[in-house]
Design a protein that fits this description.
The complex is a heterodimer of chains A (about 325) and B (about 375). Chain A is of the alpha/beta class. Chain A folds into 2 domains: about 1-185, Thiamin diphosphate (ThDP)-binding fold, Pyr/PP domains (Rossmann fold), CATH 3.40.50; about 195-325, Rossmann fold, CATH 3.40.50.920. Chain A has helices spanning about 5-20, 45-50, 60-70, 90-100, 100-105, 135-140, 150-165, 175-180, 210-225, 245-255, 270-280, 305-310, 315-325; strands at about 1-5, 25-30, 55, 75-80, 115-120, 145, 170-175, 180-185, 195-200, 205-210, 230-235, 240, 255-265, 290-295. In chain A, strand 13 (about 255-265), helix 11 and strand 14 form a beta-alpha-beta unit. In chain A, helix 3 runs parallel beside helix 4 and helix 9 crosses helix 13. The longest helix of chain A is centred in the N-terminal third of the chain and has 15 residues, at about 5-20. The mean pLDDT of chain A is about 100. With about 375 residues, chain B is of the alpha/beta class. Chain B has 2 domains: about 10-320, Thiamin diphosphate (ThDP)-binding fold, Pyr/PP domains (Rossmann fold), CATH 3.40.50.970; about 325-368, no CATH class. Helices cover about 40% and strands about 10% of the residues of chain B. Chain B has 12 helices and 7 strands. In chain B, the strands form 2 sheets. In chain B, strands 1-2-3-7-6 form a 5-stranded parallel β-sheet, with helices on both faces. Chain B has a two-stranded antiparallel ribbon with strand order 4-5. In chain B, strand 6, helix 8 and strand 7 (about 245-250) form a beta-alpha-beta unit. The radius of gyration of chain B is 22 Å and the shape is globular. Classes of the chains: A alpha/beta (about 325), B alpha/beta (about 375). At the A-B interface, helix 3, helix 4 and helix 5 of A face helix 6 and helix 7 of B.
């Protein structure tokens, strides 16, 4: 067991998976000699060479579209979109092609492909290097969406994503790359897709979160614990397929549900969680299903005061917990 | 196919084929036309709701598909690719099953509109409706072939209208950089639904763009089957040698409206429509084979009878096959099923069918 940063866990997983399976390739912008703008693929080109670590032109649609084709012809691509903000030229390939291929061919073709994309704010990235874009993609049947929050989960889930026979979108919060450390065993463990984790046990309220917000939720849980409010934190880890039972079991126990996400509030992923809880745990609720999320402006503003205004943080979450607890 | 001569004709020899090859090519072209005409009859008779046609493209499609190796090479076709699919291993029955969208339709099990062919056994990529997306799939297949050193060639085809999509640029650029075993076929029929080529392209030929990617671009008369064959053979050989991609533009004609929901007399001049048959590859190739002594009257009659029997049998079969069962409609979203996403038993979120409290049939159907 060794202490590793979030990005070290991801890089190690890529290296180990590529050693295990020669059909795995990595492709994207600057992923070769440079090793990616965040160094997630550092060292891969030196070890695996031009054929398996491919610097693409600035063509997101090609990165995904060619990965789809390669996946149909015996390759297992791990594509990198440099920033989640830049994924939209590939949206059609993800939505209309990768996610529908198995269904539309009646299981004739599958697309075993992983798309990694750094997302999230709080990094002075402004409108186009800070976005949380998961809601656009969790709406799509046929696409799995993963957002890990710890190095341990990142490794286990990335292994599962790469080994999965369907397309998986794997979002990594940029702010966590070097600020989050955790124990990562040297074993070939996997974490199954579609399974949440209860990361903090509690009794009075369930907080549902993922990615960076799963950390902030834990910090907020510690703060309010000192005030005598016991909250349970459910880290979803996989957004689609969602682990409904983990959410519902917790809410049925605590009777209250607070959903935290960094994305714009309106129509965000948390809205679906709220709907599930309202539909399927209504009889257990003794307070309104509540969301804490980013404000509905078209992006994270750059100036640090404005960015702080935008970002959900542990204080805002703790405040929300207190209000809901008092309901 | 019985050919009475003991040595091959000069025509066959001139392109390095046998008379049997030429007859087989003619058979595919004529079969594609017969299947296509049957589709329109079935549509007008109210048997199938929609037709999208390949009439006028068949000669180019068969000539161009012919040099590829079936079940080794790949084609990502488009919605007019009936003859391409027939030349690459699908049958008239396979095509008609897609028109009827029956459960055993090998393209999609009745999930896709007619014209969205695809078949894993024959390395024909399943296609969608947003045009030119298949460009990148074929490039990716070629990339995989290069990495895995399989010796495969990947081809895709589309109309000149589709050639304006950004995916075509991204794909050609990448295929050229990596010298991938890839062929882009533009079947230029002069119209993107109703918009004439002059409003889609600033140049006469899409093939002119090839030089911008540093690859060969060739223009070929789509009514000349053997010219199409030769252009494709050269491109396939080149790809197989590792010398990179080729753009082939075949000038073809669109004999029908865009689809069964289109009325082309609204936007095409009468004179132009009247002249179309003189550019049709089917009669031209038939005359060419007759003249070369490859196609006798007797052989032609035999082929016509075989085709009619095949299309009749295919129609009867497709007509009689069962529709897909709605209880299967949730299957193959993923390779495995995900009961964790099963909708609540009252089914409001399932597929709009249940709606009664206590009725769990829809929900349980969702995870069958």
């Amino acid at each position: 067991m060794a202490l590793k940063t979030f990005i070290e866990a991801i890089r190690e997983t890529l290296v180990e998976e590529m050693r295990r399976d020669p059909s795995i390739i990595v492709l994207g912008e600057d992923v070769g000699k440079k090793g990616g703008v965040f160094l997630a693929t550092d060292g891969l080109w030196a070890e695996f060479g031009d054929d398996r670590v491919i610097d693409t032109p600035l063509t997101e649609s090609l990165i995904v579209g060619a990965s789809i084709g390669a996946a149909m012809n015996g390759i297992r691509p791990v594509a990198e979109i440099q920033f989640a903000d830049f994924i939209f030229p590939a949206f059609n390939q993800i939505l209309s092609e990768a996610s529908r291929m198995r269904y539309r061919s009646n299981n004739g073709f599958g697309v075993p492909m992983t798309i990694r994309a750094p997302y999230g704010g709080g990094v002075h990235g402004a409108l186009y290097h800070s976005q949380s874009v998961e809601a656009f993609f969790t709406h799509i049947p046929g696409l799995k969406v993963v957002i890990p929050s710890t190095p341990y989960d990142a490794k286990g889930l990335l292994r599962s994503a790469i080994r999965d026979d369907d397309p998986v979108l794997f979002f990594e919060h940029k702010k966590m790359y070097r600020s989050v450390r955790g124990d990562v065993p040297d074993t070939d463990y996997t974490i199954p897709l579609g399974r949440a984790a209860v990361t903090h046990a509690g009794t009075r309220m369930t907080i549902v979160a993922y990615g960076l917000m799963a950390h902030y939720a834990l910090e907020a849980a510690d703060v309010v614990a000192e005030e005598g409010i016991s909250v349970e934190v459910v880290d979803l880890r996989t957004l689609r397929p969602i682990d409904k039972e983990a959410v519902l079991n917790s809410v049925r126990k605590t009777g209250k549900c607070l959903i935290v996400y960094e994305d714009n509030r309106f129509g965000g992923y948390g809205a679906e969680v709220a709907a599930i809880v309202a539909e399927e745990a209504f009889d257990y609720l003794d307070g309104p299903v509540t969301r804490i999320a980013g404000p509905d402006v078209p992006g994270v503003p750059y100036n640090h005061v404005l960015e702080d205004w935008f970002m959900v943080n542990p204080e805002k979450i703790a405040d929300g917990i207190r209000k809901l607890a008092a309901y | 196919m019985a050919v009475t001569r003991t040595t091959d004709s000069g025509l066959a020899a001139s392109v390095g084929l046998t008379d049997a090859d030429l007859v087989a090519m003619y058979h595919k072209i004529a079969l594609a036309r017969a299947v296509d005409e049957r589709m329109w009859i079935l549509n007008r008779a109210g048997r199938i709701p929609f037709v999208i046609s390949g009439q006028g493209h068949e000669g180019a499609q068969v000539g161009i598909a012919w040099p590829l190796e079936r079940r080794k090479d790949w084609i990502a076709p488009f919605y007019r690719s009936i003859a391409t699919c027939l030349a690459f291993g699908m049958t008239a029955q396979d095509i008609l099953m897609a028109q009827y969208a029956k459960a055993s339709d090998p393209s999609s099990g009745g999930r896709q509109m007619p014209g969205h062919y695809g078949n894993v056994e024959n390395n024909l990529v399943s296609l969608s409706s947003p045009v030119a997306t298949q460009m990148l799939h074929a490039v990716g297949i070629a990339l995989a072939a290069k990495i895995r050193k399989t010796g495969q060639v990947a081809m895709t085809s589309m109309g000149e209208g589709s050639s304006n999509q950004g995916d075509v640029h991204e794909g050609l650029n990448f295929a050229a950089i990596h010298r991938l075993p890839f062929i882009l076929v533009i079947e230029n029929n002069g119209y993107a639904i109703s918009v004439p080529a002059a409003m889609e392209l600033a140049t006469l030929d899409v093939a002119d763009r090839a030089s911008g990617y540093g690859i060969p671009g060739v223009v070929v008369d789509g009514s000349d089957v053997l010219a199409c064959y030769r252009a494709s053979k050269e491109a396939v050989d080149r790809a197989r040698r590792g010398d990179g991609p080729t753009l082939i533009e075949a000038k073809v004609i669109r004999l029908t409206a865009h689809s069964s929901d289109d009325q082309q007399t609204k936007y095409r001049p009468e004179q132009e429509l009247a002249e179309l048959p003189s550019h049709d590859a089917l009669p031209r190739f038939r005359d060419q084979l007759r003249e070369a002594g490859v196609l006798s009257e007797a052989l032609e009659a035999t082929i016509a009878a075989e085709i009619k029997a095949e299309v009749d049998a295919a129609t009867d079969h497709a007509e009689a096959e069962p529709d897909p069962d709605p209880s299967t409609a949730m299957r193959w979203v993923f390779a495995e099923e995900w009961p964790s996403e099963t909708p609540p038993p009252w089914g409001l979120g399932s597929h709009g069918m249940a709606g009664h409290e206590g009725d769990t049939s829809a929900a349980s159907g969702a995870v069958d």
